[in-house]
Amino acid sequence: MGRPLKAIVTVKLADHGVSARKQWLADMKTEAAISQIYSVSGETDTVVMMNLTDMEEFQELSQRLFAEDENVLQYQSLFVLEQHKFDLAL
Fold first, then answer.
1. Partners of 77 in the β-ladder
2. Residue 27 burial by Cβ neighbours in a 10 Å radius (0-12, 13-18, 19+)
3. 61 Cβ neighbours under 8 A, 6+ residues apart
4. Which of 11, 13, 35, 50 is the most exposed place for a label (fewest CB within 10 A)?
5. pLDDT at position 12
6. Those residues with Cβ within 8 angstroms of residue 55's Cβ, 6 or more apart along the chain or in another chain
């Protein structure tokens, strides 16, 4: 079946303290659907790349990982419509 649905989620955290941030990142790293996590500068704190089986999986994960997490102040989901380049080689 694979994971054909790709989502990019930007996350603003409520608590930027070292221990809260480390715990939140540790929780994210355990999820099979999450392929990449980046701490970034700017209006958001973190960018999470997800590879999902379907929208139902996204809804379950986004509710559990983002909406119900007290340390997540705000999140926005973007879905990949077309992939034009994907190359991880240096």
1. 9
2. middle
3. 31, 33, 50, 52
4. 35
5. 97
6. 5
